[in-house]
Design brief:
Layout (H helix, E strand, L loop, with lengths): L19 H8 L10 H13 L5 E4 L6 E7 L7 E6 L18 E3 L2 E3 L3 H13 L1 H6 L6 E6 L9 H11 L5 E4 L7 E5 L1 E10 L14 H22 L12 E9 L9 E10 L5 H23 L4 E10 L2 E2 L5 H10 L3 E5 L5 H6 L3 E4 L14 E3 H20 L9
Parallel strand pairs: 3-6, 3-7, 7-15, 8-14
Antiparallel strand pairs: 1-2, 2-6, 4-5, 5-16, 8-13, 9-11, 9-12, 10-11
Helix pairs in contact: 1-3, 3-10, 6-7
The structure holds zinc ion.
Zinc ion binds next to helix 3.
Length: 407
């Protein structure tokens, strides 16, 4: 990974942020979630090695992807986790005006996939590594870079289990998703499920003697809608969220091959997004009870082999940090751009919170510019992120009792 080179962007009207070269190097590596992220992990590993910092990897089952975890300071003391994901969403079908992987500098902004979400945060943290190493830290700083966040926050769980196995003391976790440097304290939890409906196929002229899996999947959709109406009218409610109640949603139904065949199999993808007062597993249990009592008996009466099975696609807890929590005031003081309340997008922060960390989301860039063609981040946001991380490092040096950041 290159060292910062200010002169190459001298044409820019305001000069380049010091972390720009490292951010560009990360953006140039295509880490779309369906691909391996190991090229990026190798790049970061070499950079850490060049500064004498050790790291650990935790791989997925195939060994094609990895989380990277590194600690600067004494990991047995409560510290500050700087958390970010390495993967990005696809560019397929999007109308980009530049190469999404070229990390193009346009005036005072960087354009490329992941520029906002969230390789700038990763690059800012890496560029600050020499500062973290310059003086002893009273609180350790942990770098926690995950895989497969964009497909359901799947990778980070292994890293957290690895951290726990190593005896890393829980402390503060800052997830650097793009919030425009505002401190975000919550998002809903999301449980993503797939129902496999198995019936019996037949010629459609004999439909009453068969079990139409498509029909029964549709019954599940109808029940989800019934549950949604009840949640919207009866709660539980939390006005900090929009919508202020838990939501249910069916996104994909696959069934059938031809009109004159009764479908034997159907799969239905659906999700629950819950407010803090609600539990997605309570909602799932209710749906399962409905299937077992109302649907399966009528299916098996015709075809005993019929069944409805449920597969968990992802289970990401919500983030629910009280606005009055001391960590919120503390990070707001370091980020210096106010609070962002609760947000609609999911993040890894809920998993860190579940593991005992005081977690917030705060990072440069706008989520409104993410996942789109010509995704970008402004130099101003990158520089605000750099100043934030510099103050975090000061805070870590001075230790847990500090209330006086010097920068
Ligand atoms: Zn993200």
């Amino acid at each position: 990974m290159a060292q910062p080179d200010q002169d190459r962007y001298a044409h820019s009207t305001r000069g380049a942020p010091r972390s720009l070269d490292i951010i560009r190097e990360l953006v140039k590596i295509d880490t779309t979630s369906r691909r391996s992220n190991l090229a990026l992990i190798d790049c970061v590993s070499r950079y850490l090695a060049s500064h004498g910092v050790a790291w650990r990897l935790s791989h997925d089952d195939e060994g094609a992807k990895a989380n990277l975890f590194a600690t600067i300071g004494d990991a047995k003391r409560p510290g500050i986790v700087l958390s970010g994901h390495t993967d990005v969403v696809p560019v397929d079908g999007q109308a980009w005006s530049v190469d999404p992987w070229a990390a193009t500098v346009q005036e005072d902004r960087l354009v490329g996939r992941g520029a906002a979400d969230m390789k700038s945060f990763l690059g800012i943290v890496l560029a600050a590594l020499p500062d973290m190493l310059a003086l002893p830290l009273a609180m350790p700083i942990h770098l926690a870079f995950s895989y497969d966040e964009e497909v359901g926050c799947i990778g980070v769980g292994r890293m957290i289990r690895d951290m726990q196995a190593m005896g890393v003391a829980p402390g503060i976790c800052i997830v650097g998703e793009p919030t425009g440097m505002k401190v975000v304290t919550g998002h809903k939890g999301k449980l993503a499920m797939r129902a496999h409906v198995h019936g019996r196929e037949a010629h459609s002229a004999l439909a009453p003697y068969a079990v139409n899996a498509l029909d029964y999947a549709a019954e599940i959709v109808v029940e989800l809608r019934r549950m949604q109406r009840e949640l919207a009218s009866e709660g539980p409610f939390n006005r900090e969220y929009d919508p202020p109640y838990s939501t249910l949603h069916a996104g994909v139904l696959r069934a059938g091959t031809a009109l004159n065949i009764v479908p034997r199999d159907a799969t239905l993808d659906f999700e629950f997004r819950t407010v803090p007062q609600d539990d997605p597993h309570r909602l799932l249990a209710r749906l399962k009870t409905y299937c077992e009592t109302e649907l399966v008996p009528t299916m098996t009466a015709i075809a005993p082999e019929s069944a409805i099975e449920f597969e968990t696609k992802s289970d990401n807890p919500g983030l629910h940090t009280e606005e009055s929590a001391s960590v919120v005031e503390r990070i707001e003081r370091l980020a210096r751009n106010g609070r962002g309340g609760k947000v609609a997008f999911a993040s890894e922060a809920g998993q860190f919170q579940r593991a005992g960390f005081e977690a917030v989301i705060c990072g440069p860039g706008s989520i409104g510019d993410a996942h789109k063609p010509d995704e970008f981040i402004t130099f101003e946001q990158i520089e605000m992120g750099e100043a934030f991380i510099a103050r975090v490092i000061d805070e870590a040096r001075e230790g847990a009792n500090s209330r006086h950041a010097t920068r």
